[in-house]
Amino acid sequence: MATLVQSGKWIQKGLEIIIAAISWMVFLFLDFLEVFMCIFYRLLDEFLEGKAYSSCYCMELMEEKEKTGDCHHVAQVEVDGESELSETLHRRRNFFRGLLGSLGISLVPKGWRNGESFLQMRNGTRWSDCGCDSCVEWMKNADDPKLHVVVQEPQTERASWVDSKEREAENVIFLHGFLSSSSFWTETVFPNLSESAKQNCRLFSVDLLGFGRSPKPRDCLYTLKDHLEMIEYSVIGPYQLNSFHLVAHSMGCIIALALAAKHSKSVKSITLIAPPYFSSLREDASMVALERLAAKRLWPPLLFGSSFMSWYEHLGRCVCFIICRNHKMWESLLKFITRRGNLHFTFIDLTRHTHHSAWHTMHNVICGGAKLADKYLETLRMAKVKINVIQGTRDQVVPIECSINIQKQVQEAEIDKIANANHGSVVLGREKDFTRDLERIWSSVADLH
């Protein structure tokens, strides 16, 4: 028996070594492809648009190293500056980029730029982004851009929570996760509200900046500050929200924490679903978040996809070019295959962004927000804001310890672990139960005020 156990351990160890070796070779190949596509896009952007729309971050890093000999200078300046860029944009390691940089070899010959544009893009979009009517609809109000917000007003008759004390309607702001939109809430929570909640709650489901039907400006770096200002300008200000609840999923949780900390006197409760929270204690908190959420691993496939899109700026742009720019074709094809007139909203939402908006939001919000998360939680703890966390026990995107660590930081926070639920099914597939949980949270806070 002992021999069999020992043999099993050796087999397992051998498999781990083989998988690690294959993983190393795959990502080494991707490192090479990334450098090649860096050169390709650099030349093609300048050829088609007259000049490179913006230097990629691997290019900026190499140029800065040529000037100062310090590869971390750019990241430090940007993080401490007003732009609030995450250091993960510059510190993503790449074997071949590092090799070329150490040899002082430039990826693109100097003096290449000719300043002439050979392609006039429709509606001012990039050649690699979709220019269909639905994707550029926000440009009709380019002079005064606001987020797309779905508002559900309370029904005329007021009852239950507010009858006795004549309270005002409970305002609730919903923030979606990465590669999603307001549909995540309007298709799940809104249809399953009880009659009492319909009569007493005013709901705001937001398309975050760069996603869904909201603006996707090219000159924006999609920092936390950018997201907060747009929510304030599009929702809190126009609707004069003096008090509100927050409900957020995944990436939206970071934005919700920042918004709640900024308006701690107005927030009644904050409900975080699968929050990607990592402690801010370490100086490289942003890099820790990137390593944990998008580790360079081949398995599971979901993690490989995250690492591919998070570590490789130019390869990710290739994916967005193929999928997002041609989303109309893919939607038509899928409708034909499935024989369905309407596709599931999660598939539609998956393509409603640009590479620029998704790339910067991933790094500047999800990763960059890690270095500020503890500060936000401490502000909410001091303000005695009710914090509720909900996460599935089989979440392969956000580690379950993220929720546990929030409770360690704020002992009053309530954690609800949903058995056998993953990152999406913590809401999808249990919409009624999830909505009832939200209503209990809102009503319990209303009873205290």
Automatic annotation (TrEMBL):
A Pfam entry, by short name: Abhydrolase_1
Protein origin, superkingdom: Eukaryota
Any one GO molecular function term: hydrolase activity
Record's keyword annotation contains Acyltransferase: no
Transmembrane segments: 17-41
Domain AB hydrolase-1: 172-288
Record's keyword terms, sorted: Membrane, Transmembrane, Transmembrane helix
UniProt key word Transmembrane: yes
Protein name per UniProt: Probable lysophospholipase BODYGUARD 4 isoform X1
